[in-house]
Design goal:
alpha/beta; 348 residues; 37% helix; 6-stranded mixed β-sheet; globular
Length: 348
């Protein structure tokens, strides 16, 4: 029986060392040769949110982002898209308001009323299986809007101005002989005290404060904005978690310092991710290892966000996507086939 031959048994063959993947057309730049400026090196395209996932566990990144093996978008994603569209409209109205909202009593109350009405009108876009679940989720979404408008009103009263909403960018980096393109959109750019600040709204579960401070996604947003406006013009970033409120009834918000400040939780990925790092990267990793007992520092002429983004690009360029144990393994949708998990032993 040909298919009974041991060469066809699961787990007998060695793990794949290098995976060649054809990039989806919509994810690739229009002209790859232009993505790296003067360089003819085709760019590796990564979304800002993919960098952290890739460095945390390349296997999960590959299966979910490149192989598209994860389940289609959940109701939570649909809700997030709906909420972002409502917030975008509210912010655009605040930006165009004359006189400014601070001089209009009831401005934000009226905005909130109309936003809640639009939320209810469009609620049918979310198809919940039972009526009670739909009603409960709608109540939670309305609470998010109430928190947002309370936060927005305080922001206006403090003199914070909105410069841009859903600001698109295309950030290109080149280090270690690799070019990476990082396209995306910034939820909000605001100005306070003469400096710009990035704001990212979240409708899901909040992160820890230390996680926000070291967020690759926020850092890439800051870097993209700094490239356009100058490094000294960007004062930091913040994540606003609309689904959870603080003691004042406002959404929980955690901040990230400017890119000149190295986060306390900054880490380099494990060596297993980099089978054959370029010489410049090898020197950087060696410098980090030798200074492990000292204050965190970066030896190269780049900041921590650039370093992590380029590390992610190097992993993709190598074409190897190993599984790496991390705090999220228990919730990984691919743990049943993971070679480093008990559940995946049956396949190894």
């Amino acid at each position: 029986v040909p298919w009974a031959h041991p060469e066809n048994w699961w787990g007998v063959l060695d793990s794949t060392d290098k995976i060649e993947v054809v990039q989806a057309p919509e994810a690739a730049p229009d002209n790859p040769d232009d993505a790296g400026g003067e360089s003819a090196q085709p760019a590796i395209v990564l979304s800002p949110s993919a960098v952290g996932t890739l460095l945390e566990c390349p296997r999960r990144y590959f299966l979910s982002r490149r192989a598209a093996a994860e389940r289609p978008g959940s109701q939570s994603l649909v809700l997030g898209t709906l909420m972002h569209s409502l917030l975008e409209q509210a912010q655009l109205e605040r930006m165009s308001a004359l006189p400014p909202p601070a001089g209009q009593p009831g401005f934000f109350a009226d905005l909130e009323l109309r936003a809640v009405g639009e939320l209810r009108r469009r609620w049918g876009e979310l198809e919940y299986p039972v009526r009670w679940q739909s009603a409960a989720k709608l109540s939670q979404a309305e609470a998010m809007l109430r928190r947002y408008f309370a936060w927005e009103q305080r922001s206006a009263a403090a003199g914070v101005e909105i410069e841009a909403v859903e600001r698109p960018f295309e950030l290109t980096l080149e280090l270690f002989g690799v070019v990476v393109a990082l396209p995306g959109k910034i939820d909000r750019v605001e100005i306070a005290g003469g400096k710009r600040r990035v704001v990212d709204f979240k409708t899901g579960q909040p992160l820890l404060q230390a996680e926000v401070a070291a967020s690759d996604q926020l850092g890439i947003y800051q870097l993209a904005l700094a490239r356009d406006t100058g490094p000294t013009a960007v004062a930091g970033a913040g994540m606003v978690f609309l689904g959870k409120q603080n003691k004042e009834g406002l959404p929980v918000e955690y901040g990230q310092a400017g890119l000149a400040v190295l986060p306390k939780r900054f880490v380099l990925p494990p060596a297993v991710l980099l089978a054959d790092p370029p010489p410049e990267l090898r020197r950087e990793l060696r410098a980090r290892a030798e200074g492990a007992e000292e204050e965190p520092q970066i030896a190269g002429p780049f900041n921590w966000v650039e370093l992590r983004a380029m590390l992610a690009a190097v992993v993709v360029a190598q074409g190897s996507y190993p599984a790496v144990e991390n705090a999220k393994c228990g919730r990984c949708p691919f743990r049943d086939s993971c070679p480093i998990r008990d559940e995946g032993e049956q396949l190894c």
